[in-house]
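Input/output pair, single chain:
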Amino acid sequence: MPQPTMQERWELFDHGADIGVRGIGNTESRAFEMAAMALTAVITDLSLVQTRDAVTVHCQAPDRELLRR
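Output:
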């Protein structure tokens, strides 16, 4: 995965159910990549993560807006 640009980032925030994750990117695809980084940061120290294998992830929803929430 390419390094994030200044406009691309991930965030963790308080959420009533547990913890919220948010990905911000220059494209929808990059925003999902940033959200994946945020989710990974919840469960492990990102400095311990190494890129080894590429994994393709597909998601779908009846409405594209549902994927952005």
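The chain is about 30% helix and 15% strand. The chain has one domain: 9-68.
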